[in-house]
Design goal:
Blueprint lengths: L2 E4 L7 H12 L4 E4 L4 E6 L3 H11 L8 E3 L3 H7 L5 H10 L4 E6 L14 E5 L4 H10 L3 E2 L14 H8 L5 E4 L10 E4 L6 E4 L5 H8 L4 E2 L2 H6 L18 E5 L3 H9 L4 E6 L11 E5 L3 H17 L4 E6 L7 H10 L4
Parallel strand pairs: 1-8, 2-8, 4-6, 5-9, 10-11, 12-15, 13-14, 13-15
Antiparallel strand pairs: 2-3, 3-7, 4-7, 5-6, 9-10
Helix pairs in contact: 1-5
The protein binds threonylcarbamoyladenylate (TXA) and magnesium ion.
Threonylcarbamoyladenylate (TXA) binds next to strand 5, strand 6 and strand 10.
């Protein structure tokens, strides 16, 4: 039976944390909130525990996991080298939505890194995540708490719906604020490289480092040995077709309705004008933070409303929207 425990997002109860830490120390799975999305945690240094994460998510063994740490010392103890770039980025952005890819120490099991020589490290900012890491006293491997390739969970309800009985304990601390997964930055080469865009943008990374930061493009990923194996074309996807439209999607939505499709329409900003009958409309804010924070919840809502198709108005092709457009493009990729 999956246990679900309410926990205060700002002041988590030590007794509740200890209960979860015990579950983790027994090698079992705990879903917990981070400032980005809910994570599915297990002891990172215990291969049998990590194995359970892959089983629960239906995740391919080729896709490595992010290891979450409570403090800098723990992060350093898992990395074989700690370049000045890591020091600087950790100083500026940790705790926060940034994962750093570094050469791994032998203590990090191969199953965590999908057999690779590097490990992704992140110190989360959510009080519950940090307190759980401290209570457990060990680093936690934690991917997003959803079935592989599906929409990430931003509430405990999403976790329960996606993973069902596959998780031992779910913390319910309300909705997560960030909404999109962390920025993943590869620091194993001379130039820092963003493998997955996220809440922290390239300009912010460059400002912190005082040097250029590259973006690993999709094209590069298909031609090179996969730098971030999790970046498959289709990801973050709802169970029904999703398509992206530039500009207003009214014409496309009207067409779907005419074809008797039950359609969900995701508008950029509040929807206005008369709405076609029989559609589900959700409007997301025009600012990046508000949009990111609400995106996955909107996709989950369309799913539970039973729509047959989701039509999304793409935010503008500007740097601040990079992560949102990345997720939407992947979600729209044919299965
Ligand atoms: O915000 C987040 O990062 C959330 C919360 C729970 O912390 N976690 C998350 O984990 O999104 P996951 O497993 O869903 O995504 C991890 C991403 C994948 O794209 C994976 O391929 C990449 O990080 N990754 C992990 N380890 C890596 C490594 N050693 N080298 C390159 N990419 C790595
Ligand atoms: Mg994920």
């Amino acid at each position: 039976m999956t246990e679900r425990l309410s926990i205060d997002p700002q002041h988590p109860d030590p007794a509740v944390l200890e209960r979860a830490a015990k579950v983790l120390r027994a090698g079992r799975l705990v879903a917990f909130p981070t400032e980005t999305v809910y994570g599915l945690g297990a002891l990172a240094l215990v291969p049998e525990a990590v194995e359970r994460i892959f089983e629960a998510k239906g995740r391919p063994a080729t896709n490595p996991l992010i290891v979450h740490v409570a403090d800098l010392a723990q992060a350093r103890s898992l990395a074989r080298s700690w370049p000045a770039q890591a020091e600087r980025l950790a100083e500026v952005f940790w705790p926060g939505p940034l994962s750093l890819v570094l050469p791994k120490q032998p203590s990090v099991p191969d199953i965590v890194t999908a057999g690779g020589p590097t490990v992704a490290l992140r110190m989360p900012a959510h009080p519950v995540a940090l307190a759980l890491l401290r209570a457990t006293g060990a680093p936690l491997a934690a991917p997003s708490a959803n079935r592989s390739t599906h929409i990430s969970a931003t509430t405990a309800e999403h976790v329960a719906r996606s993973l069902g009985e596959r998780v031992d304990l779910i913390f319910d601390a309300g909705a997560t604020s960030g909404g999109l997964e962390s920025t993943v930055v590869d620091l194993t080469g001379p130039v820092a490289r963003v493998l997955r865009p996220g809440l922290i943008g390239i300009a912010e990374l460059e400002a912190a480092l005082g040097e250029r930061v590259q973006l690993a493009s999709a094209a590069m990923e298909t031609h090179q040995a996969q730098p971030s194996p999790g970046m498959q074309a289709r990801h973050y996807a709802p169970g029904v077709p999703l398509e992206c439209v530039t500009g207003s999607a009214r014409a496309r939505v009207t067409q779907c309705v005419a074809a008797c499709e039950r359609v969900g329409w995701l508008t950029l900003g509040e929807p206005h004008g008369r709405l076609p009958e029989g559609i589900v409309v959700i409007g997301l804010p025009l600012d990046v933070e508000g949009y990111s924070s609400g995106l996955y919840a909107a996709l989950h809502e369309f799913e539970s409303a039973g729509v047959e198709r989701i039509v999304v108005e793409l935010p503008p092709d500007r740097p601040e929207w990079l992560a949102v457009r990345d997720r939407l493009t992947r979600a729209s990729h044919p299965a």
